[in-house]
Amino acid sequence: MSIEAAELAKFYPLDKLLPENLEQLAREAESVDVAKGAVLFKAGDTDEQTIFVRAGRVRGDYPDGKQKDIDASTLQGRYALGDLQPRRFTATVTSRSATLVKLDRRYMEKVQTWDQLARNENFRHVDPSPDANRWVFRLLQSRALHKLPTGNIERMFKRFEEIAVKAGDVIIREGEEADYYYAIKDGAASVSKSLETGSAIVAYLVRGDTFGEDALLANTVRNATVTMIKDGKLMRLAKKSFDEVLKPPVVEWLTPGMASIMARQGAVVLDVRMPDEHAERAIKGAINTPLYTLRESMTDFDKSKKYIVYCNTGERSAAAAFILSKLGFQVFALHGGLSGMIRQMEKQA
C-alpha cells in the first residue's frame, strides 16, 4: 500500500526534507498492516529496512529484560523504530493491529544526503525546474550504488562535472582508453558494438542511466561506443575520482574460502575471462562468460541465485560484478582472482 508525502512528513527526520525529495521517498515507501503478536524484528538482527509505526503500539524487549512501549500517537512514535544495527531489542506488536511504514534504509540515507547538498547555495547540480532532478533519484536507486557509503555519495556529487551534448556526439568510442564515468542528466544515447556482422546497437540509455564504468573497473579500453541520440546534459566523473569514490565500495569481494563455501551452497561461479584462458585453467564447475559478452548473456541468468565472478587478478571480475549488481543481481567477486587463489593454495600446500 502506498503512502502520501504528507503522511511521511509526520516522521522525524523526514519532516525536514525538501518537498521534491519527500515525494520521491513516498513513492518508494511501503505501508503495511500487521496483526497483534507480529514480531517485526529480533534483538541482534541486521537488516536493510527503516520502520516507522504509523498507527498502533509496539513493545520493545531488550536482552537484559528491560522493556519499552512505542505508541504511534506519541512524540516517540515519530521516530524510526529501533533503527540501530544490529537491532538492540525485539519488537512485537501489542495493539490489535498496527500500520507500519517501511523504507530501504540505504536509499533513504542517500536521499537525505542529496537533500542536504541541494540546500547549499554553492552546490551547482540542483535544477529547480519540474522533474529536472529525476536523474538523481534514478541514479541513487542503482543497485551498483547500493552499498556506497553516504560520504562517498556526497563526494561523488561534488566531483561531478556537467557537460552539454548534442545528438550525434560520440561520448566514448570502442577501443579507446577510458577517461570518464558518465551519468545521463538529460537526453538519450545508444550503445553500439562491433560484431562479426558489423556494428550494431545493443542498448539505449536514458535519464539516470550510467555508462563507462566497465573499462575503468577493468583497466582496459572501451568495449562499446556510446552516441547521443538526443540533445542533453551529462554528468561525468574523471578516472581518478571514480577510482577514489566509486571503485572500492561498489564491489563486494570474497576470499577464496568464503567463495568455496558459497559455491557449495549453490552460488553460480562465472569465469569472465576469454575462452582460451578458461580452457587453460579454471575453477571446477565455473561457467565461462567473457566480460565483453556479459550484457548479452545475462538474459539466461537467474536473479534468485547468487553469483561469484572471477578472472585472473580481480580487475575484470570487478567490472562484471558492477554490471550485474547494477541490474539487480546478487553478485560477489573473488578477491585476487584465480592467481590469488592459486597463491593461497600453494602457501597452504
Q: Radius of gyration, Cα only, in angstroms?
A: 23 Å
Q: What's the CATH architecture name of the largest domain?
A: Sandwich
* Structural class by sheet pairing and helices: alpha+beta
Chain oligomer state: single chain
CATH homologous group name of the largest domain? Jelly Rolls
Arithmetic mean pLDDT? 89
Main beta sheet strand tally, sense and closure: 5 strands, parallel
Number of distinct beta strands:
20
Low-confidence stretches: none
Strand proportion: 25-35%
Q: What is the global morphology? A: globular
The share of residues in helices is: 25-40%
Distance between the termini: 57 Å
- Spatial strand arrangement across the major sheet: 16-20-19-17-18
CATH fold node name of the largest domain: Jelly Rolls
CATH class of the largest domain: Mainly Beta
Q: Tell me the number of helical segments per DSSP (H or I, 4 or more residues long).
A: 13
How many separate domains? 3
What does this structure look like?
By secondary structure, the chain is of the alpha+beta class. The chain has three domains: 5-103, Jelly Rolls (Sandwich); 124-248, Jelly Rolls; 251-348, 3-Layer(aba) Sandwich (Oxidized Rhodanese, domain 1), CATH 3.40.250. Helices cover 30% and strands 28% of the residues. The protein has 13 helices and 20 strands. It has helices spanning 5-8, 19-28, 105-118, 134-140, 150-159, 213-218, 239-245, 247-250, 256-264, 275-280, 294-297, 315-326, 337-348, and strands at 30-35, 39-41, 49-55, 57-61, 67-71, 90-93, 97-104, 161-165, 170-172, 180-186, 189-195, 198-205, 210-211, 225-228, 232-238, 253-254, 268-271, 287-288, 306-310, 330-334. It has a five-stranded parallel beta sheet with strand order 16-20-19-17-18. Helix 12 (315-326) links the parallel strand 19 (306-310) and strand 20. Helix 3 crosses helix 5 (150-159). The protein is globular, with a radius of gyration of 23 Å. The N and C termini lie far apart (57 Å).
